[in-house]
Amino acid sequence: MTKTKKLLINTVIFGIGNIGSKLILFILIPIYTFYLSTEQYGYVDLITTIITLAIPTVSFCISEAALRFALDNKNNHIVIFNTGFVTIIVSSVILLLIGVIIGNIIQVDYLFLIMFVLIFQMINIFLSQYIKGLQKNIIYSLNSIILSFLMLIFTLVFFNMNLNVLYAYFFAQLLAYMFSVMFIMIFAGVLKTVNLTKFNMNILKSMMIYSFPLIPNQLMWWVMNLSDRFFISYFIGLSGNGIYAVASKIPSILNIVSAVFIQAWQISAIEEKDSREKNIFYSNVFNNLSSFLLIIISMILCFLKIIVDYFLAESYGSVWRYVPFLLLSLLFSNFSMFIGMNYLANMKTSGIFKTSIYGAVVNIVLNFLLIPQYGINGASIATMLSFLVVWIIRMSETRHFVQIKVDWMTMVSSLTFILLQIVCLYFSLVVINYILFGLILLLNIKYIKRWLKLIINRD
């Protein structure tokens, strides 16, 4: 099997899981906006943000090490799993003890419910990354769909019961993650692998050396992705954060494509890191990814107002104003992650941390400067520019790993037309917006032809 065909097959497999799960999660957005006020949505989004922040620290990013080490056939997979699993169990116990201390000091509503959501989400991530490292990609993708479907079912059930809506939200999350963990343990054969006596301190040290720099990196990535919520809550209020939280969900349409590819690319980048033709391979893959994402962004901009008016409640009608720059943020975020795989493939995880710090500093400074001046859109622009900085730095730093030849002419021209589309969107110039989309298609016609040829010539 050729490396391009393997990447395509993995992309399709991950695509089935991601498209199915993202579609279900997209359906959840109007449900949340119907039952939760903007203030309540802002609150649960902040709690979700805190959970996202806590997981890398509490778990020591051991799930990333499990993936990388499991992909290396020289390692003993059973030892890798149990070493990582014991680490997750110990971390969970410590977390609960901390919860007891916090509960005795301050009153936090649903504290232990939220903590168990964090714990089972952490376990789910570890198990998912481990089976991905074993390349059980079908189970991995199927689990994504099952997890999202369970969230939808439990959310609908509990929201229609005589329960506090915040309690219903978190309880639905907890049950979904618990059943997802059970699914992986049983159907991926992980349950047979559990043998805590196989814990190995030397393996743990090696995994920690790899994963430890990823902890602050994840925190810095969080700063660029999610810290905007705290700045908006401070400068504008929870209602503004609720609007921004919903606005950030809409680019998840683009993330369906990008997340699928990045998952498949993570495997290929590691497997092809020593290939003689890696410069050509990496360049072709990057330019095709860039072209595809730019086309999707342009298409979303054409239908953005229609999407908002049709799917969201009237109180969220202004959401479309804050989406365009978040779409570009996601574009540069994926460029950064694509290039960042070179650090992971070559076991140079400290490089990821260092470059993420630069982006986080830029993001914090710009949030302070732009949000008071431009409101919610200031956060969108700050996030976009921070990811742009990270991408540029990583492109420069990883040249000694691989030489990627970017199709700058097509990329810059497409980005220029997209910026014009954003202007047309704000001035309601619908026809010109569609014309610009057509021009972007023409600019990327060579890539479109390649995709069609690849689909037609399946051999």
UniProtKB/TrEMBL annotation:
Q: Which parts of the chain span the membrane according to its record? A: 7-34, 46-67, 79-102, 108-127, 139-161, 167-191, 203-224, 253-270, 290-313, 325-345, 351-371, 415-443
Localization annotation = Cell membrane
Task: Name the source's superkingdom.
Answer: Bacteria
- Tell whether Glycoprotein is among the UniProt keywords: no
Is Transmembrane helix among this UniProt entry's keywords?
yes
- Give the matching Pfam families: Polysacc_synt
**The entry's keywords:** Cell membrane, Membrane, Transmembrane, Transmembrane helix
Tell me how this protein sits in the membrane.
Multi-pass membrane protein
PANTHER family (UniProt xref): O-ANTIGEN TRANSPORTER-RELATED, PST FAMILY PREDICTED COLANIC ACID TRANSPORTER
> Which protein is depicted?
Oligosaccharide flippase family protein
Source organism per entry reads Pontibacillus chungwhensis
